Amino acid sequence: MQEKLKKFFSSYINKESFFLDKKLLTHNYIPDKILHRDEQIMSIAKVLAPALKLEQPSNLFIYGTTGTGKSVVIKHIFSELKSTNTTNLKPVYINCKLKKTADTEYRMLAYILRELNFPVPETGLPTESLYNKLFELIDEKEQIILLALDELDALVKKIGDGLIYNLTRINTELKNAKISIIGISNDLSFTDDLDPRVRSSLSEEEIIFPPYNALQLKDILQQRAKIALKPGVCSEGVIEKCAAIAAQEQGDARRALDLLRVAAELAERNEDKKITEKHVDLAEQKLELDRVTELAKTQPRHSQLTLYSILKLFEKGKDQILTGDVYEVYLSLCKRNGYKTLTQRRISDLISELDMLGLISTKVVSKGRYGRTREIRLAIAKKSFDILKSTFSNMFET
DNA sequence: CCTCCACAGGAAGCGCAGGAGT
DNA sequence: ACTCCTGCGCTTCCTGTGGAGG
């Protein structure tokens, strides 16, 4: 047995990897050349260019679905700006969706302050004082702050538009410095919820990122594959297939890269000679599975119990699962496992959270005489369902 | 046409943890 | 040590509502 293990490890080390540099196939990597986004890059550059002369650029609103290159383009432009002028121009990029980082007003301000080299505690201070601090800090000298708020829709959905409103108001009071806000969103409809004043000031300029089509995705993949994979390891049609799948799903480049990377990993692990279309299929399954299990595992306990309740009901073959049913199962599940039960109101919120995570899909329906409730359906593949269910049944008494 | 179910989902507020100022 | 502030998870109480059955 140990001999076998030794052999395995040594062959593993000596085995030729498919990758030259795996990092280049992740979405954290920002390529030097961004394909098929010239138009958008130039438009943004035109809007932001006045900053180089210390004139305040217009606020900018960028819209496009996931994986259309919004973040990459902004990061790219920011790093270019940083290399041209560092003293009076301060680009700050914030992803509002990062939990525990920038998902509340306080944390957002704290994050901005930290970016400006002014550390603040995670909690404890009145939010008001953070505004004052920010104001002082920025107005110290003549400068332009470029504030890119990625996934802005998530933030607004959670805490409203007060923060943006305050930021734009600060602007009018600043003497030396100016703030320009670049809002990035993958949901256009969210501007409906904004205060009209906020909306109009935020979208002084608007730029739309259209989804990539299959051909463009293919270009992007080829560009990356060239530097990330060894030549000749991809079979005919692999890149095309990744591109086609991703193109079907809203032209998401991130997805395309994930597919290719995981397909390569699977092929390598399986000691196959080449990456084939079959590996892409497997990669698609694996990505879904990983996403779902990771999501489910990191949920707080009562969310897990709620999800498990839904899984159990689903397994029983119920065609329509309602909030009340879920709550009943949840109660008995809690009882058997010795957990304190939460109220139905709370469970209702947990259900909509699970919905937002994309694990289930819910629809509010009216059943006339029999009330108004949510109809819950699972939004995961069969295989993920099985694995989730067995994970949970190991965690909890059933 | 009216009723009334079974919830949705808003509002307020509570208790806790955790940091700052004093 | 004490007070004041925050976010967060949660409860309590509440008003709102689409449509089947009367």
Q: How big a fraction of the residues is strand?
A: 5-15%
Count of the domains:
3
Distance between the termini: 38 Å
**Biggest sheet features:** 5 strands, parallel
What is the gyration radius calculated from CA atoms?
Answer: 25 Å
| Order of H and E elements | HHEHEHHEHHEHEHHHHHEHHEEH
Number of helices: 16
Helical residue percent?
A: 40-55%
Q: On the 0-100 scale, what is the average pLDDT?
A: 86
CATH topology annotation of the largest domain: Rossmann fold
Model regions low in confidence, pLDDT < 50 over at least 5 residues: none
Report the count of strand segments: 8
Structural category: alpha/beta
Strands side by side in the biggest sheet: 2-3-4-1-5
Describe what you observe in this structure.
It is a single chain. With 398 residues, this protein is α/β, with parallel strands linked by helices. It folds into 3 domains: 2-26 and 213-295, Orthogonal Bundle (Helicase, Ruva Protein, domain 3); 38-208, Rossmann fold; 299-395, Winged helix-like DNA-binding domain superfamily/Winged helix DNA-binding domain (Arc Repressor Mutant, subunit A), CATH 1.10.10. Helices cover 53% and strands 12% of the residues. The protein has 16 helices and 8 strands. It has helices at 2-14, 38-48, 70-84, 105-115, 127-139, 152-159, 162-173, 196-202, 214-228, 238-248, 253-269, 277-297, 301-315, 323-337, 344-357, 382-395, and strands spanning 60-63, 89-95, 144-150, 178-185, 205-208, 321-322, 360-366, 372-378. The chain has a 5-stranded parallel beta sheet with strand order 2-3-4-1-5, sandwiched between helices. Helix 4 (105-115) packs parallel to helix 5 (127-139). The protein is globular. 34% of the residues are buried. The mean pLDDT is 86. It binds a DNA duplex (22 and 22 nucleotides) through helix 15, strand 7 and strand 8.
